Amino acid sequence: xxxxGVLNLGQIFGPVAVSVIMALWIGxxxxxxxxxxxxxxxxxxxxxxxxxxxxxxxxTLLVPWPIVFAYCFVRLTEIWxxxxxxxxxxxxxxxxxxxxxxxx
Length: 104
Known about the structure:
The chain is mainly α. It is built from four helices and no strands. It has helices at about 1-10, 15-35, 40-55, 65-85. The radius of gyration is 17 Å and the shape is elongated.
């Protein structure tokens, strides 16, 4: 992975950029793992974990596009579920972004 960063971004900024990108990626996966009580967030985590191996081949933004679209779908579904919550039982666990850590 560091080699891909060196090829794409140069010898000085390549390893630094790869380190920052992977730190952000792993932080995002950890956040979804902490929210695994919601089935859709668990699916996002599993999709992200599967795409992690492809991130090592080349440092481009083409690999995480399925995650971007899946996250948009999950957010829209959660918003829809919150609007309909007075009429139907809650199907997903929706936690606000400012919520504290989740203890399982």
